[in-house]
Amino acid sequence: MDSQFVIAIGAGIAVIAGIGAGVGIGIATSGFLQAIARQPEAQNKLMPWFFVGAALAESTAIYGLVVALILIGKLG
C-alpha cells in the first residue's frame, strides 16, 4: 500500500474526533440544563464544572485537528 494513501486515511480518521467532541458537549449541555431545570439554585455551583467538561471535550477535537494537519503536512 502506498504510504501517502495511509497518511491520508490516518488524517481522515483523526478528524473523526470532532464528532465525539460534538456529541460529548451536547450530552453535557443536556445534563446541565436538566440539572438547572430541577434545581435552579444550583446553577452557580454547576456552571464552572460544565465549562471544565466542555473544554475537555473540545480539546479532544483540537487534538484530532492537530494530528490531521500534521499528517496532511507529510503528504507534500
Describe the structure.
With 76 residues, the protein is mainly alpha-helical. It has helices spanning 3-15, 17-38, 43-75. α1 (3-15) runs antiparallel to α3 (43-75).
Low-confidence stretches: none
Q: How many helix segments?
A: 3
Strand content is under 5%
> What's the overall average pLDDT, rounded?
90
Give a count of the beta strands, DSSP E runs of length 2 or more: 0
| Spatial shape | rod-shaped
Q: Radius of gyration, Cα only, in angstroms? A: 18 Å
**Main sheet?**
none
* H-E string: HHH
Structural class given helices, strands, pairing? mainly alpha
For this entry, give a set of tags.
89% helix; rod-shaped; 76 residues
In short:
This protein is mainly α and 76 residues long.
Write the layout of secondary structure elements.
Layout: H1 3-15, H2 17-38, H3 43-75
